[in-house]
Amino acid sequence: MVDQKKLPRYIYLPPDAVKRQAELIRNGEYDILPDEILWRDRYTTFLERGYRLRPRYHPDWRPSWTGTNLNPEFCEDAVVSDNPDVLDATRESDGLRVAMKAVKKGGQEILISQFLSSLQDRSNHCVPIVDAFQDPLDPSRMIMVMEYLRPWDDPELVMVGDVVDFVTQMLEGLEFIHNQRVAHRDIAPQNVMMDGRTLYPRGHHPVWRDRSPDAIEDLVPLARMDHPVKYYYIDFGLSVRFAPGQSPLVVGDVGRDAEVPELSSTVPYDAFKADIYALGNFFDKELAQVGTKYHRLEFLQTIINSMKQRQPATRPMASQLVAAFRETRRSLDPSEFRWRLAPKSEPAYERLFNDTVAVAKNSISQLRRFVRPE
After folding, report:
1. Which of 29, 185, 316, 337 could form a cystine bridge with 161, CB 3.0-4.6 A?
2. pLDDT digits (tens, 9 = 90+) for 256-266
3. What is the superkingdom listed in this entry's lineage (predicted)?
4. Domain spanning 150-338: which superfamily?
């Protein structure tokens, strides 16, 4: 048994449950999964390269709760990765959390990702690549090491200002990509992430993102308005980099967003204009929903409509969108940025109550920024 003075009582199991857990361990219920074996087999090579995988992937791993009364739901090494193609790790030299992904050697994903990541620019919102090396078990693949990121909406956006900042960064990032003669071709919610470290100053678990690094405590994130995050485009597996002067016309019914109207496997279309539509559709579905999802986001509709023109030639370029949204942002009252995002489905009486609570919490948060304890 472990020392119960060091950990909260709720992580321990009653005696009958301990017996059941022991039986489950004997029956292999917690054995490493088939998708995880490839990562376990690379553990030693990664460590030699300077990257340490979580204890679960050590070749000699055994469940840490074996022979204890610990509940595995609060044991870090019980956590299975939610994406078998990408795994988190820690860089030994400085403790930086990274994400590792096996990609095709010499393929466009790693070439374009490394190219964009190498460019130093404030408007660069492409996933940072920190390393790349030969896959130790597959000569046809490379291991691409990226800075660890979390989904753009986890935790969810809660204030109008959160949306303004998100849209601003996404438009600036797309302008940057297009200025490098690169078309993403797969813009969708799954391919936008953020560096959320400012929201969790004590860290968080890489898979159970609302838990502490040891997976024991539930965490409450800080407010984005007071602790800004940076958003990034990821996954350049379908991207194309055009040579100077080369036509941006492509073919291919590709990408997660099948609603881009011009997609075709036979008729060429402008890849840059397709990106514009996909990002506009992203804004529409995730934020505006043609005015049916949230209150107070009506200012987005004009720019979304321009991005979702069915005729590609009538859609603005990314640089024009950045300039247009800059003007929209100037027209907004900054005091409105801290208004809560209220769902349209929320009844009026409930919205009034929630708005009042949000204002009170925000006022307390603002006061704490200026008052220091004695």
Report:
1. 337
2. 999 999 999 99
3. Eukaryota
4. Transferase(Phosphotransferase) domain 1 (1.10.510.10)
